[in-house]
Amino acid sequence: MQANKPENFYQNVKDALAQPDLKMIIRRTTDKAEAKRAEAIANFPGFENARKQGQKVKDHTIKYMDHYLAEFEKNALAQGTIIHWASTAEEASKIVLDICRQHEAKKVTRSKSMLGEEIGLSHALDNSGIERVETDLAEHIIQLAGDPPSHIVWPAMHRSREDVIKLFREYHKDPTYSEEIIDLVRSARRDLRTKFLTADIGISGSNFLLADSGSSCTVTNEGNAELTITPPKVHIVTAGIEKLVPSMAHAVPLLRLLTRSATGGEITQYITFHNGPKRQNDADGPEECHIVLVDNGRTKMLADGMEEMLRCIRCGACMNHCVVYKHIGGHAYGSVYPGPMGSVLTPHLNSLEVANKQTHACTLNGRCEEVCPVNIPLPKLLRSLRAQSWDKKYEPLTNRFVVKAFAALAKRPKLFQLVSSCGVIFMRLCSRQGWIKSMPLAGGWTRNRDLIEPESKTFMQQYKAMKKAKSDGA
Amino acid sequence: MSQEIINADVKGAKSNTIKCLNISEKKVGLFVTCLVNTMRPSVGFASLKLLEEAGCTVEVPEQQSCCGQPAFNSGDDEGTRQIAYQTIKQFENFDYVVVPSGSCAAMIKKNFIEVFKDQPEWLARAQHLADITHELLSFLVDVCEFESSGIELEGSYTYHDSCSGYRALHVYEQPRKMLANVKGLEHNPLNGHSECCGFGGTFCVKYSDISNEIVAEKAENILATEADYLLGGDMGCLMNMAGKLNREGHKEIKALHTAEVLAGLAPQILGDENASK
């Protein structure tokens, strides 16, 4: 499956809605995620406090970003880690490729990293002829299928079990002929195990970067990050600079929020803090460790007043609870980051010109903000991006015209009332048996639903007549 | 239609026994909203009736238009300001401003201030208007401590909590509490009661097909309740859901604004609807 482009959003949506099973497949995951999250939050009386605490930790770190970045670099260097700075996606993936070339790497293992996707690392590795092995089960599935991810936590959620059975039978050396999940997992494990042990370089992302120790934290359920990082001689971390927190103590409240918001679990199977290359007496671990710190639009978000978005810990709760995401799925957004958080991030990672339509594909119902573990005001941020699109005239001309005409009327109440009463007459002309089935200029509405017939006079006309009748009577 | 309703007694219904705070000397400005003004005036008259029964002195400024959501949600801040200027001027001198819509009330309460960040004088006036503005059903219960009685309606209702009212203004208990006093009316709770219906203002025409998928699912949930009435506090959402139900041929369930039921106007409205068939 080719990756969709963000600028083709209208067509992407059309394609998504035309897929008969997509909604059902998405629902299998999001309904479960919603229910499990709700249960986890209900069993966590300290949720609201943790949320405030988590927000505070993030806000503080973002506010003193330069200080903590310097501290992180100093402490990571002291551990023997090599630090790289990348201001763009291209720079970041070039740094990783250069390290691979320097070590003449033929095979790399990767644990799931949205930042890796953001900087286009998969393609960069594939294009340079290095064998790329995705070790996260879902990433493994979409690598076999050739799909881009459709969710930031469950990147293969758009694939059904039937799809997975087919893919594994086709690509695994020693595939299972059972359809049981456990057997499918074993099949993937057989396929991946030898690759883990023969990779030249392991590449991971990071859930948190701890400034006071220079360490990086990974959170997984499969243990694949540990197996990606430990056996190869070289370990490369790619991480966005917003992953910073001051210390482990500050990462803990965020971890509690992250696991509950993402999967409804109190904790994941594996949470590991990686502290640079192998020391003299260590039994195992990489001999060389690199951390690539990536900006790619993040400092610009700070400058543009979008710093609240930098709180995001990538739990995916906003998309699991988004009515639009649930119907169109992740691919339609045409970005590595779909759903509400993606619609805010993509304009900064890409450009608002190509990704402004997504900011309008939202009813501003507020559910995403309600479930966000770090209180990101997503609807407010989406609205402010709409205001930027408006100022830059990215809105289609017809939309601009309609909104401007409406605003011009609404600021003149007398005229507005007059036009309203004409509108009532017009609508009643189009109406049959209490309902309007179709009406000029209302195709957007009547294509899918009927419009109720208005009463014969506007409220204001009736109200004035009533007042007049009263005063005449008196 | 609505004048007659207001002028006549409700057949078979006793008038309300009112318990309310001493707010009669407080002046209430009713912001009718453009959807009620053009599409469903009876909601405006129901609001008027309920507020008066709750002891308020109500005025409806004739120089009113729209809260500005279409402009604000499209990102047209200047257009929003132009609309907000006159709304502020029209309504700032009331003691309370009441709106029979959660989303329009939330627009005035929460969003006006966002477009006046660089204009301190207007920011203060917008903040004042925000402070005195209330959504109708929450105003009746929380401020007026109004308890209606004597209203009867046979059947069952299901309730859709519109997003702005529910999330921005925390309207949830108030309509249910008042509807519990309507004799003969039972509540069949709606699965996904607070999930968006897909209206979203300009969203429903801009992304009509996504909106359609969302409202189709909502309609299924509504039908599953087997209720006779679909109630809510926002005309936009009600028109969306009712329009979808009608398109799908489900005429067995009637959509009404909660205020219409509480004011005892339901029998007339339903009678009118049946008469037009």
Structure description:
The complex is a heterodimer of chains A (474) and B (277). Chain A is of the alpha/beta class and 474 residues long. In chain A, 53% of the residues lie in helices and 11% in strands. In chain A, a hairpin with a 4-residue loop joins strand 5 (208-210) and strand 6. Chain A starts with 8 loop residues before the first helix and ends with a helix. The mean pLDDT of chain A is 96. Chain B is an alpha/beta fold and 277 residues long. Chain B folds into two domains: 2-142, Rossmann fold (3-Layer(aba) Sandwich); 150-270, Rossmann fold (3-Layer(aba) Sandwich), CATH 3.40.50. Chain B has 15 helices and eight strands. In chain B, strand 7, helix 13 (235-247) and strand 8 form a beta-alpha-beta unit. Chains A and B meet through helix 1, helix 15, helix 19, helix 20 and helix 21 of A and helix 1, helix 2, helix 3, helix 4 and helix 5 of B.
Key attributes of the depicted protein:
heterodimer; A: alpha/beta; Rossmann fold; Fumarate Reductase Iron-sulfur Protein, Chain B, domain 2; six-stranded parallel sheet; 24 helices; 12 strands; 53% helix; elongated; B: 277 residues; alpha/beta; four-stranded parallel sheet; 15 helices; 8 strands
List segments of chain A where confidence is low: pLDDT < 50 over at least 5 consecutive residues.
none
3D shape of chain A = elongated
Number of domains of chain B: 2
Rounded mean pLDDT of chain A is 96
Low-pLDDT ranges of chain B: none
Distance between the termini of chain B: 16 Å
Q: Mind telling me the C-alpha Rg of chain A? A: 26 Å
Tell me which oligomeric state these chains represent.
Answer: heterodimer
Number of helices of chain B: 15
**CATH architecture classification of the largest domain in chain A:** 3-Layer(aba) Sandwich
CATH class of the largest domain in chain A: Alpha Beta
Number of helices of chain A: 24
Say how many strands of chain B there are: 8
Fraction in helix of chain A = 40-55%
- Which two protein chains have the largest interface (Cβ within 8 Å of the partner's Cβ), and how many residues from each? A-B, 70 and 73 residues
Count of individual domains of chain A: 3
